[in-house]
C-alpha cells in the first residue's frame, strides 16, 4: 500500500512511541498468558479496534484518523474487558487458557462483522484500509497527543507488574507462595495491555510482528527477568518501527510503503529464525 510522502521532519515524532509500547505490551501479555506466541489479537485488541473504526466510518461518516482513533481505543478496551470476563469462571480468576479461547472467539466474531460491513459499504473500505495496514502516514503528535495520558498510564502499570510477573512465571501456586496476587496481577496485566496496545493500535492501526518478534529478541539479550525485559523490549520495539518507517520511505520514493507491511516482511523471517533456534518457548 503506497501513500503520499509526508514531511520528513515528523519522522521521529510519529514513530517513537508506538513501537515501544507495542513491544512492551506484548512482553507483558506473553508473560501473563505464559504463551510465547501471544500478540494483540489474543485479547481481541486488534479486532475490537477494527470493528469500532469500521463502524465509525460506515455509520457515522468519520473518515479522519483524529476522529476515529477514539472509537478504536474504545473498541479495543471493550473487547479486552469482554475477553477477561469470559475468561473468568465463578470465583476463580481468569486463566491463560480461558482468556486465549475467549480472545480467539471474540476476534473471529468481530473480524466477520468487519468483513460484512465493508462488503455492504465499499466506501468504508476505502478509508478503513489505510488504518488497517498499519500506516504511520499523516499521524502526528497533534493527532495522537490526547492519547498520551493513556500511554503513560499503561507504561506505569506495565512497569509495576515486573516483580509479580516474575513470580507468576514459576506457576500460580508458587507465585502465590512468593506473595504475588494472581487475580490482581492478571487484571492489571489486561489493563496495561489494553491501554498500551489499544492506544497504539488506535493511533496507527495494527502493526504486525513488532510486538510478536521483539520480546523474543529481548529475551536473548537480557534474559527473562521482567525488570530488564520490559525496558529492553520497549527500546527494541521503537528501533524496529523507526527502521521499518525509514525503509518504507526509502524504497518507494517519492511515495512510501506502510510501516505495518515492512514490519511483516522483516519480522516474519526473524520469528521463523527464532523458532528454528528454539528460543521462542523460553519465557
TrEMBL record:
Bilayer-crossing residues are 41-62, 68-87, 99-120, 187-217, 229-251, 257-275
According to its UniProt record, where is this protein located?
Answer: Cell membrane
Q: Provide the species name.
A: Flexivirga oryzae
Q: Which GO terms describe its molecular function?
A: transmembrane transporter activity
Question: From what superkingdom does this record's organism come?
Answer: Bacteria
Which family is it part of? Belongs to the binding-protein-dependent transport system permease family. FecCD subfamily.
Q: Which Gene3D superfamilies match?
A: ABC transporter involved in vitamin B12 uptake, BtuC
This protein's name: Iron complex transport system permease protein
Query: Which cellular component, as a GO term, is one annotated location?
Result: plasma membrane
What topology does it adopt in the membrane? Multi-pass membrane protein
Q: Please provide the record's keywords in A-Z order.
A: Cell membrane, Membrane, Transmembrane, Transmembrane helix, Transport
Mind listing the GO biological process terms from this record?
A: siderophore-iron import into cell
